[in-house]
């Protein structure tokens, strides 16, 4: 830990942010945090005003829902103006890559650095410090915050300039969401054919159809019927839309991705607003359920 980075600001203490901020505090960082909906958290100095997280902070982590929230915190609420020159903002949420590029340029005008470092691995990975971190930014900036990122993730990869991490994170989730959807269809068909879900998963997980959905989501959240992964369906849909926009912008026709977005959007219309993303399986199993 370099002297400059012993104090970390942290904005967004939700499903992911709270366990991540707690890990940083447990690792010895002084964490000053802010969340629009949280007034206290064990071991963390929660401040009533977001600009106070800038105090002495060599780096400020953002773990917010989307680019709108990131911009509202940095521009609207005045965090960017409160940061000392040289501070590194680390946007670890899943934001829009083109808006991240713009943000990096706007921050640079104030000599504030921007690293995008979205994560994969879910709430459990956040609590265990085993997240995969997909970083974008200048090599020197990523190197400076690497100790912070390695406290949070077991695998920290720099992918390229600012926005690169957010681009890959969205594309990863487009793949993940599409896997979960096809798994729901295929396993439902298998069940109707007379096969047991547990037996199918045991076979598929040793076969070429396996994925994070069959290895993690089905056994841990779908089969037990808990649907409590901690990653909201609306956030998954947000990531898929970011990805499909990116796919289109590159000239690749988003034929399967577009179809997947339509099916997830239909699920979002028919499931409760706080539904977990694993509840897409419920929608596939009961497409006529309007509740
Ligand atoms: P969440 O909704 O649980 O938490 C977001 C937090 O941000 C909330 O506590 C909310 O009060 C706070 N917030 C919103 N607007 C704010 C503002 N203007 N100022 C201050 N605080 C504000 O979301 P999450 O599940 O923790 O996800 C955070 C980000 O990480 C998202 O971009 C998501 O896509 C991504 N992500 C989530 C998971 C997961 O498994 N949950 C995994 C990987 C990535």
TrEMBL record:
Domain of life here? Bacteria
The record, for SUPFAM superfamilies, names: 6-phosphogluconate dehydrogenase C-terminal domain-like, NAD(P)-binding Rossmann-fold domains
Specify the 6-phosphogluconate dehydrogenase NADP-binding domain's residue ranges.
Answer: 7-157
Keywords in alphabetical order: NAD, Oxidoreductase
Which InterPro entries does this chain map to? 3-OH-isobutyrate_DH-rel_CS, 6-PGluconate_DH-like_C_sf, 6PGD_dom2, 6PGDH_NADP-bd, HIBADH-like_NADP-bd, HIBADH-related, NAD(P)-bd_dom_sf
Q: Give yes or no: UniProt keyword NAD.
A: yes
* Tagged with keyword Secreted: no
Q: Which residues form the 3-hydroxyisobutyrate dehydrogenase-like NAD-binding domain?
A: 163-282
PROSITE patterns per record: 3_HYDROXYISOBUT_DH
- Record-linked PANTHER family: 3-HYDROXYISOBUTYRATE DEHYDROGENASE-LIKE 1, MITOCHONDRIAL-RELATED (PTHR43060:SF15)
Tell me which family the UniProt entry assigns to this protein: Belongs to the HIBADH-related family.
List the protein's name: 2-hydroxy-3-oxopropionate reductase
Q: Which organism is it from?
A: Acrocarpospora phusangensis
């Amino acid at each position: 830990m370099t002297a400059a980075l012993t104090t970390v600001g942290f904005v967004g203490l939700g499903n992911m942010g709270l366990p991540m901020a707690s890990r940083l505090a447990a690792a010895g960082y002084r964490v000053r945090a802010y969340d629009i909906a949280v007034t206290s958290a064990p071991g963390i100095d929660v401040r009533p005003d977001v600009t106070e997280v800038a105090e002495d902070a060599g780096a400020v982590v953002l773990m917010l829902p989307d680019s709108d929230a990131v911009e509202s915190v940095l521009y609207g609420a005045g965090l960017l103006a409160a940061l000392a020159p040289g501070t590194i903002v680390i946007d670890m949420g899943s934001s829009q890559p083109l808006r991240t590029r713009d943000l990096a340029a706007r921050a640079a005008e104030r000599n504030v650095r921007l690293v995008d470092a979205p994560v994969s691995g879910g709430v459990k990975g956040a609590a265990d410090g085993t997240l995969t971190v997909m970083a974008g930014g200048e090599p020197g900036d990523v190197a400076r915050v690497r100790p912070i990122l390695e406290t949070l993730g077991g695998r920290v990869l720099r992918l390229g300039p600012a926005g690169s991490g957010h681009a890959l994170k969205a594309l990863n989730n487009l793949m993940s969401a599409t896997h979960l959807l096809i798994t729901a269809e295929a396993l439902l068909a298998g069940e109707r054919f007379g096969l047991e879900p547990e037996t199918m998963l045991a076979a598929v997980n040793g076969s070429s159809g396996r994925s994070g959905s069959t290895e993690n989501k089905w056994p841990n959240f779908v089969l037990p019927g808990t649907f409590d992964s901690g990653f909201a369906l609306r956030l998954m849909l947000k990531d898929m839309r970011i990805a499909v926009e990116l796919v289109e912008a590159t000239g690749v026709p988003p034929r399967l991705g577009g179809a997947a977005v339509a099916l997830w959007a239909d699920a979002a219309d028919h499931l409760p607003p706080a539904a977990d993303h694993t509840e897409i399986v419920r929608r596939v199993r009961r497409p006529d359920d309007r509740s």
